[in-house]
Amino acid sequence: MTDIVDRNASPRLVIPPLGRLYAALGDTAETVLRVVAGLALVTHGWGKIANPFGAAGMVESLGFYPGAFWSLMLALTEFFGGMLIAIGLLTRPASFAAMFVLLVTVYFHWIVRSEGYAGAEKSILWAAIFSFFAIRGANRHSVDAKLGKEF
Question: Has this prediction a pTM greater than 0.70?
Answer without folding.
Answer: yes
